Amino acid sequence: MGVSRRRQLDPEVGDHLRPADADLPAGAYRVVGTPGxxxxxxxxxxxxxxxxxxxxxxxxxxxxxxxxxxxxxPDGNRSIASAAAARLEGFAWEIRVIGQAMRAHPLQxxxxxxxxxxxxxGDGRLPGPEWLFTAAGVAGGLGIAYLGYRGP
Length: 152
Hints:
This protein has two domains: 61 residues, no CATH class; 71 residues, no CATH class. The N and C termini lie far apart (65 Å). It is α+β, with helices and mostly antiparallel strands and 152 residues long.
């Protein structure tokens, strides 16, 4: 009889692992990086398989991955209502960030909002070719996205 050995894991970004006998808190961990000889893990599920938002990040040497086993994605068992609520929460967060950025940069904020409004409502009300209003709308939308990305 031979001794059974665990197969060495070679995870990729996006895979989910669960510590079997590693000394980490029980739960599901998403692979978020594989730099060099380490694997970076983000804890995304508790021991019962429910989604958690801990922000807990661990770096594990590839040689210690024998203490892990593949795990289910905790997002796979979310209800539709829970997924919709998370989307709405994310949208509300984006609106807050964009609002803060516009308060921090009022002139730039006013310019991109004006471009967006001209692009959306200007065709037929202001003189100019249709492509100009399309370009203004796209530029205004990109400007708002840039302000949100840039932040306050």
